[in-house]
Amino acid sequence: MPHPDAGLDGETLTTPVTEIAYAKVNVALHVRARRDDGYHALESLFVFADDGDRLQGWENEDGAIDLTIDGPFGATLDAGADNLVMRAARALQSYLGEQRGAAIRLTKNLPVASGIGGGSADAAATLRLLARLWDVRIEPDELTGLALDLGSDVPACVTSMTQMVGGRGERLMRHAVEGLDACPMLLVNPGVGVSTAQIFAGWDRVDRGPLDGSSLGVLRDGGRNDLEAPALAIAPVIGDVLATLAAQEDVLLARMSGSGATCFGLFRSDRALAAAAQAVRQARPDWWVMETRIRCA
Q: Can you give the pTM of this predicted structure?
């Protein structure tokens, strides 16, 4: 495939459309029950980082969808038809009856299978990117329906704003929590990938009660991630990450995100965030670390 920056004769193509696939973080994740359809009923507060993977798209007229992948974690992904970017692009193209195609470049900055919605965020960003690239109008409910077919976390990733998420991911409600907007956040992954299906299979099926997202203090003291225990059983190093984050000065909350293995720390100030990031990098240079902040609603 030709490099997406250049035409067949080497000429530069038009300026691409760019979207960021913002990293998703579960401030709390309560697993309430297993539904009749086999999915788990969840209650979670989703927030999104200011940073994530990067997608660029160039329109083409032949209807083809082409994907190239680069970035720090690009080598871990296949650019074939099963990639969520490809699936999202094809789903939107089919839904719209769109005859145009696109060349898409995914710069993979987030670790794969890491509990921060990398694939889901990529799929959602693809939907946003192509709607802009092809200059089409699509209602939010239509986009949410397409997104849910791609994965449970994809609908929330379409807007990438702080929200309460319920059901298997189809119930979304914007939910402001004082102190979360622009809160400094450190993401840390110990370099292990864990299987979401395996983590859910290890859940003990005990309903420990609903999620109260009324304040950051309540989320800290009464919130939880019900998938931490099965994740720790599979990847004990997650416990080391949590202990390291919890030991940092001025940390407001340290918890695992999603099904792991990425954990996050929320901090009182940018200074505390920078100091914590430096401490983690010095102690464990083999761990992936991202300094960021929570996106504002």
A: 0.93
